Amino acid sequence: MSEERFEDKAINKHQYKKTCFNNENRPYKEIIYNLNDDNQILNITEQYVVTWLTQTYSFEYNTKHQLTKAISISNSNGLKTLLKTYEYDSNDCLLTEKQFKNDLLIKEISYLTDSSKKITSYIIRDPNEKTMRIVKLTYTLYE
């Protein structure tokens, strides 16, 4: 068994650093978080201490503070870029999520909501496999 420990340190109002320690109490990864004025994460940079591996994440938000774009870039096993985009309907419910890998659309998810803003079903499209899966959700209230 092993145990990990984490230590957070505020750099300034919009930035903090997390250091990850292994079971020998040695740091193995450092993570820098950058925030906007609304305390939403703008980007994250992960750096492994003893290797060249890095991962970066960037996030964009609309004027309603809803996530509209998430990008992750990793240099493990070659440079990989994953992009997710999010669109919302007029009721501020998530409408569509698109996932891209190295600029190639790999998945599209469309959400259907009811008048109370609950997701009633969603459709997952895979353009590469030319498949579509429809999932219907039901809710049960337990007392």
Arithmetic mean pLDDT: 94
Structural class: mainly beta
Report the principal-axis shape.
Answer: globular
> Helical content, roughly?
under 10%
Uncertain regions spanning at least 5 consecutive residues:
none
Distance between the termini: 40 Å
Query: Rg to the nearest angstrom?
Result: 19 Å
Number of strands: 11
Main sheet overview: 11 strands, antiparallel
Can you offer a commentary on this structure?
It is a single chain. With 143 residues, the protein is mainly β. It has an eleven-stranded antiparallel sheet, with no helix packed on it. It is built from no helices and eleven strands. The protein is globular and about 50 Å long.
In a few lines, what is going on in this structure?
The chain is mainly beta and 143 residues long. It has strands spanning 5-12, 15-21, 27-35, 41-48, 54-61, 67-74, 80-88, 94-101, 104-113, 119-126, 131-136.
Secondary-structure blueprint:
Elements: E1 5-12, E2 15-21, E3 27-35, E4 41-48, E5 54-61, E6 67-74, E7 80-88, E8 94-101, E9 104-113, E10 119-126, E11 131-136
Antiparallel strand pairs: 1-2, 2-3, 3-4, 4-5, 5-6, 6-7, 7-8, 8-9, 9-10, 10-11
Notable traits:
143 residues; mainly beta; eleven-stranded antiparallel β-sheet; 11 strands; 0% helix; globular
